[in-house]
Amino acid sequence: MGLEFMPIFKDWAVSYDDEVEGHNPQYKDVFEGYWDIITEITNQSGNSILEFGSGTGNLTEKLLQAGKKVYPIEPSQEMRAIAQEKLKDYQVEFLDGDMENFPQAENEVDTIVSNLVFHHLNAAEKNSALAAYNKILPSGGKIIFGDTMFLSQAALDAIIEREISRGFEDLVEDLNREYYPLITDLEEIFRANNFKTTYRQMNNYVWIVIAEKI
Ligand SMILES: C[S@@+](CC[C@H](N)C(=O)[O-])C[C@H]1O[C@@H](n2cnc3c(N)ncnc32)[C@H](O)[C@@H]1O
User: Fold this and answer.
1) Where are the domains of the chain?
2) 167 is in an annotated binding site
3) Which of 17, 34, 46, 76 has fewest C-beta within 10 Å?
4) Closest residue (by CA) to atom 20 of ligand 1?
């Protein structure tokens, strides 16, 4: 179901916005350029957007500031409460759901976005989620995901070795626990679900994948 990591977010919600500013040394490199990443996702998006794993609402706010209609979905009640309070001056409702089970948006969407979320789904779940998004999006519609991903298993292994040497135990546990994809594998499941992809590296961990429905 891709929800096995939810207990982490229950505790993380209150400190999450501090961490995106790089205040946790172990995650500083993951969050490097965070605001540029969500700005780039916003710039690449269309006008009517389904957002998954909206967290504390930072990407949602950027999208709304750019004048887009946003349907944010977030499984953590704690994250939703923070986001709803933060964005109380906007007309937006943070709905309960996740990347696989979610309420249908009121209007057609032309873009599906998320940042730092897709790696919570294992390979089979990623594939079935993309099959569902194919049915939602029109031809030319886009999926834009920012996430930690790696060019090769050797690149992932090298990063794990480096973080072990820096004593970053929490980060090492995270890298071994969650389903961080290789770009070659991602390319294949997007292609199998009728999307063509481009990739842009944003820091040592995070890339943005832009997938256009053929
Ligand atoms: C690292 S945070 C990213 C939050 C936000 N997107 C951002 O860029 O700041 C990951 C978020 O994904 C949510 N999440 C975890 N598993 C999920 C799933 N299967 N579907 C949707 N969201 C999920 C968590 O509750 C959390 O809010």
Assistant:
1) 6-213
2) no
3) 17
4) 98
Residue closest via CA to ligand 1's atom 22 equals: 53
- Quick one: which atom of ligand 1 is closest to the CA of 37? 8
Residue nearest to atom 4 of ligand 1 (CA): 55
Confidence of residue 6 (pLDDT cuts 50, 70, 90): confident
pLDDT for res 156:
98
Q: Which CATH number does 6-213 carry?
A: 3.40.50.150
Q: How many CB atoms lie within 10 A of CB 171?
A: 22
What confidence tens digit (pLDDT) does each residue in 188-199 have? 999 999 999 999
Share of the chain above pLDDT 90, in %: 95
89: annotated binding-site residue? no
- Ligand 1 atom nearest the C-alpha of 114 is 6
- Whole-prediction pTM: 0.97
